[in-house]
Amino acid sequence: METIQFKIDSAKSQIDWIGRKVTGAHNGTIGIKEGNFIINSGKIIGGKIIIDIATIKILDVTDAATNAQFAGHLASDDFFSIEKFPTASFDIITAKQLTSNSYYLEGNLTIKDITHLTGFEVKLEESNGNAFSLAGKLVIDRTKYDIKFRSGNFFKDLGDTLIYNDFDLDFNITAQTSKN
């Protein structure tokens, strides 16, 4: 069979995020700017996801002023340095098929121009031969990407202001080919 590129449909794809702290958690969404999956003989063999960090939204903070302040803090150098690094990326190096509809994707995750090898399991749902959806959760240690604000690894006596290092990215992606 031939190798086919499936382009990510940004309008139908997003990432749900959760960050936890001693006193609770925050959650929101991040857009996917673009990307693709390479399929050969019906199996994922590669691809790239460009994450649009500049679109990060906070869903659990309903007061507009507090939400804007929090969003500004996430955009700052304490967190994602969005002005300098508006995107992040995940480059798939290997895709190991686990079952008929699940894969373990391993690749290079780059945030703030810092790259680490990581991986996560995804479930694949093919809607037809020209499109599919994919979902999976990637857990990231933010301190590996120079996001150290209120991390217990770098600051002492934080008490109930401590923010846990791991955060969750739940990918929900739709991709399609232009092939008829």
UniProtKB/TrEMBL annotation:
InterPro entries: Lipid/polyisoprenoid-bd_YceI (IPR007372), TTHA0802/YceI-like_sf (IPR036761). SUPFAM superfamilies: YceI-like (SSF101874). Residues 5-176 form the Lipid/polyisoprenoid-binding YceI-like domain. It holds the Pfam family YceI. This is Polyisoprenoid-binding protein YceI.
